[in-house]
Amino acid sequence: MSIIQIFSDILSIITISSCLILKVPQILSIHRLKSASGINIYGLLLELGSYTTTTCYNYVNSYALLSYLEYPIIIAQEYVLIFLVLKYKNWLNTRTYALIILYFVIVFGFVSKIIPSPVLMYIIPLCTPVSLSSKAIQLWEILSTRNADSVSITTWLISAFTNFTRVFTIFVDSADKILLTNFILSGTLSSSIAVAAKYFQAKKQN
Fold first, then answer.
1. Where are its TM segments located (predicted)?
2. Closest by CA position to 71, among listed 10, 109, 23
């Protein structure tokens, strides 16, 4: 095994480990400020949809858990984050709870295969554009409102780091152009959100 391959494997482990705390700084920031200003709920929901679809797809196809373990880890954090955003934006109501129940019913339908597995085959290609759109929406939220009070710069720096490490590991393993493009764009958007958040937070302090 070459030194580059060993380094790539180490980066993969670091990437998965980073996902254990990816959303934690953002969760703590919202909880501390008791505010979700600057956070776009639709971006979070798109992100959740993308991660959930990817997890269901891997589970239904009986892929090794370690090959997609970061997704359920992030999803668990996403649940907490979305709940806090809904809470502090005062959007927790009967309709919201009904949609939450519908979400879990659909997830159960996929993992239990009540909903035919081929349906996931048609949905999974949409995950990449949906994931990128979720970040673009969050960036637009910050730029349009000029408000990043509740945005955790640490969370987005970790996101950018994990995306760019994946660029290296994928280049070493397969050099898949589609995956490389996805992670380069995703890393760029995460970096842009971190920079925008830092700019508006610093501007407000001054």
1. 6-28, 66-85, 97-115, 178-200
2. 23
How far apart, in whole angstroms, are the C-alpha atoms of residue 85 and residue 202?
23
Q: Considering the domain delimited by 117-205, tell me its CATH architecture.
A: Up-down Bundle (1.20)
Which residues lie closer than 8 Å to 139 by C-beta, 6 or more apart? 189, 192, 193, 196
* DSSP code, position 126: G
Q: How far apart are the first and last CA of the chain?
A: 52
Is residue 111 within 8 Å of 56, Cβ to Cβ?
A: yes
> Is the confidence at residue 122, as pLDDT, over 80?
yes
Give the HSE-up count for residue 23: Cα atoms under 13 Å, Cβ half-sphere.
Answer: 22
**Position 196, amino acid:** A
Burial of residue 154 (CB within 10 Å: 0-12, 13-18, 19+) is: middle
Calpha distance 57→63 (Å, rounded): 9
Tokens read off for 8: 């790539």
Q: Where are the domains of the chain?
A: 1-115, 117-205
Confidence of residue 175 (pLDDT cuts 50, 70, 90): confident
